[in-house]
Amino acid sequence: MSFSILCQLNNGCMGCCGNHFVKEKMKDSIHLNTKEFEEVNPKLRQEFIQFRDRRDSYDLRNGVCRNLIEEKGRFVCPLHPSRHPKGQEDLRLGHCDVFHLCNTAKEFATWHKKKQEEFITFIESKGLNNIEYSLSMNAGKLLKEFKEK
Questions:
Q1: Residue 1 pLDDT
Q2: Most exposed among 15, 28, 72, 142, judged by the fewest C-beta atoms under 10 Å?
């Protein structure tokens, strides 16, 4: 499983949770996903799997993974292992590309700590919402701007 601190910034990046995003419909798509999740209200492992498997992994809603939900203003995946008791497997396996890291996160991982901190400060200074942040990260826009400054 791949991970970067950039995935958690700005109330969560969801750049890897879909493709061919329809920006104008993303918030509505996530809202519908959240509503479906709340209606099912899974508690047990099998209930989470049933929620996950209600649609094929490539059956996206306006480019957004149907498992992406919003909680307290943050984008989250209810299948992520961090949301389940220790020892429980990653429920995204076999459904999502858990090894995906955007090119920005890959390059960020090669930098020294000071440069990483500067990039995080740069991102925070932009004041982007979750969706703008996610799209900008996934497209490499923030990386490009940072390098050009």
A1: 47
A2: 72
> Taking Cα atoms as reference points, which of 132, 131, 127 lies closest to residue 30?
131
CA separation for the pair 56, 65 (Å, rounded): 10
What is the end-to-end Cα distance of the chain in Å, rounded?
32
CA distances from 29 to 26, 56, 63, 123, 131 (A): 5, 16, 9, 25, 12
pLDDT tens string 51-62: 999 999 889 898
Helix (H) / strand (E) containing 75: strand 74-76
Distance CA 140, CA 60 (A): 22
At residue 81 the predicted structure's pLDDT band, cuts being 50, 70 and 90, is: confident
User: Which of 45, 41, 35, 95 has its CA nearest to residue 65?
Assistant: 95
Q: Please state, in angstroms and as integers, the Cα–Cα distance from residue 51 to each residue in 9, 78, 94, 136, 142, following that order.
A: 26, 9, 14, 29, 34
pLDDT (tens digit, 9 = 90+) per residue, 39-53? Answer: 999 999 899 999 999
